[in-house]
Amino acid sequence: MNPIVYHIASGQSFFTGCTLIILAAMLSLNDKLWTRRMMGLSFLLGVIAVVVSSTPLPWWSYSVLGTVILIWLLVQFRKRKQRGLSYAMIVVWLAALGMELPCHRLPHVEPVSERSMTVIGDSVTAGLGDPQTKTWPQLLKQKYGIAVQDLSRVGATVSSARKQVIATRIESPLVLLEIGGNDILGSTTPAQFEADLNALLKVLAAPGRQLVMLELPLPPFYHQYGLVQRQLARKYGVKLIPKRVFLSVLAGGGATLDSIHLSRAGQQQMADQIWEIVGPAYPRSDETSD
User: What percent of the chain has pLDDT over 90?
Assistant: First the structure.
């Protein structure tokens, strides 16, 4: 994967952009010509990096950030020195960094009573039907002795996954979801995505069951899908796995067949990444194999 694409899709460009904007605000405190030029370049690159990251902060926070930026820019164009406004820029963008940082930490999964898991996914999980390639749910079952109920399907959307869940008996104490990519790449609107995901999580949510979901990597200007996913995750107590985890697999050498679907090596890397997160939830067992 191209390093720039990874930097953007993983959400890391948001932190880069915030840092550049803060640097621009700091440079605005100095009247020297070279600092003014550096300020303009730093600000421009910072705004671009934030926008293309599609970081799903709440809309009100972007409204505050945008308002402060507009006032600050007006002052800069009039060549007035307002140190207080520059400090305000620094504070609000530091606050934005603080709001987003927790979303990039790995979730803590609570211990469960039995070694079983249900997986709901699309072709990233189901694979492309090559019998020689074991999918990451199969690898978890083989190596760690986990009883895996694999409901992943090629072409699955949030809506089709909900229908499948309704028709299936799920008893696992932990359900892991890798779903929504086909909705974003397809014709599902943000409003329909919200309705479908809400319906799916409502069916899955049950006392004593943990829901874990892979956060969706977002193309530029697709903030709303990510915002919906985070809001509904909070509503139903879903633990979100930061999108950088999935993208770190895609970025690995030889991990994909077509930049999205996992190769044999990619399936193994995905299994390792998922187990790092959910493994501590399961009681230890000697029933493992290589």
Answer: 76
